[in-house]
Amino acid sequence: xxxxxxxxxSITKNNIYSLLNxxxxxxxxxxxxxxxxxxxxxxxxxKKIIKKGTYLFDEGVGIRxxxxxxxxxxxxxxxxxxxLVNATxxxxxxxxxxxxxxxxxxxxxxxxxxxxxxxxxxxxxxxxKIYLLKSIDFLARKQDFRVVDVYSTLTCxxxxxxxxxxxxxxxxxxxxxxxxxxxxxxxxxxxxREKGYSGGxxxxxxxxxxxxxxxxxxxxxFWTKEAVRIALITLSAKSSPSGYFPVVLGPxxxxxxxxxxxGHGLEGDFIRKKTSIFSKKIGKQVAxxxxxxxxxxxxxxxxxxxxxxxxxxxxxYNILVQKGILKSFLQDKLNAHxxxxxxxxxxxRESYAYLPLPRMTNTYxxxxxxxxxxxxxxxxxxxxxxxxxxxxxxITSGNFVFSTSEAxxxxxxxxxxxxxxxxxxxxxxxxxxxITMVGNDLSIDxxxxxxxxxxxxxxxxxxxxxxKINKLTIGGVS
Length: 478
Prior knowledge:
Elements: H1 2-7, H2 13-25, E1 30-46, E2 49-67, E3 70-76, H3 81-93, H4 126-143, E4 147-165, E5 172-189, E6 192-202, H5 206-210, H6 219-236, E7 238-239, E8 243-249, H7 256-263, H8 268-272, E9 293-296, E10 317-322, E11 325-326, H9 333-338, E12 347-348, E13 357-358, E14 362-365, H10 372-377, E15 381-393, E16 399-411, E17 414-420, E18 423-427, H11 428-433, E19 435-438, E20 443-444, E21 450-453, E22 456-459, E23 461-464, E24 467-475
Parallel strand pairs: 7-17, 8-15, 14-23
Antiparallel strand pairs: 1-2, 1-4, 2-3, 4-5, 5-6, 8-24, 9-10, 9-14, 10-11, 12-13, 15-16, 16-17, 16-18, 18-24, 19-24, 20-23, 21-22
């Protein structure tokens, strides 16, 4: 597969090995060459018609060298051997003259096979893709007469990468498909409009979205009905109270709170620069003993799953917090080397035009032993937050603000009525230490997660079981 990929550029594996040896001859500590071919197709339906169809094709190569803590980087979308040789000479010439600390040689053997290598763009015709979006529109409007608009997006991606590095005895290769479907439904009653959102995706085949599941529905049907259901619930929802209440977070997407308020603070670059609240807390209690948080890129078919990361390191199951104790950080090769650690398979980049950074993959809280109903019944008066719509986090302090898209009032252990415009305000550390119950119903989100950092967007997944937070500040309007 590697030879076939390189052949179209008239480049061989021996050429890559030769360039890597040239880097070492020029006294660098580390160097890598990252080839990428990427296709992306997007279809948008609004007001019953296809409003937009776009196709992107991009290919190129990024060349990086490292000496001490300095990096030199160049990229081009004109992939020829001459350009690679010139780029290698150029980036090496920019490095400082300091003592060497060469990255140790390793053999990163990729044994993962976590997703199909089918090209999601070519495996399903344009006619079928348009029909799929129109069927979403038809089904949504069929659910309720108050549905006035449906906005749905189908995104298909195909990515192929080849990576050679001075610390790896083998050249790595991966093919990464990705399909995402997002659905927004608008409902109206008495001149009041509300929206509901749903959807999902992953490194899957189209057939995975169209097969009947246990509830005798396809994923497309389920997500469409969910968007309508959430919009209608919001239409009848009361304004959220404000105050300091117990909060129950539902399974799945609410795990975004751990991703944002905890996960980013455990990324190696923030730790090395001491800008994270977790910088000096390794081995210390940072959460309730009920909490074990992992970053796991080995889940089958998930948004954030990778056979190898963007530095050629196989995807791994990393325990970050175990029974409340901070165990490890997320590392790419550069930050791991500087911190005398090892890569955790979390070096990720949006494309060949960017440097890799330590990033999350699939980050989630492991299941506990409590039943969902027992968690609800333990609350005398509080909030049940089923889903979030957005939020902000300060990495340095861990402080966050999240808005709910579906939430309810709990009173005397019963879910009473839906509320809207509820905002959760707090600190990641305080929340983790305030978790008093963890459910046995772990769920990974449906697959719409996109994470942004330093201008780079990558696909991720999050998850958690139902959890109870003892007290949390709620911002509302009543």
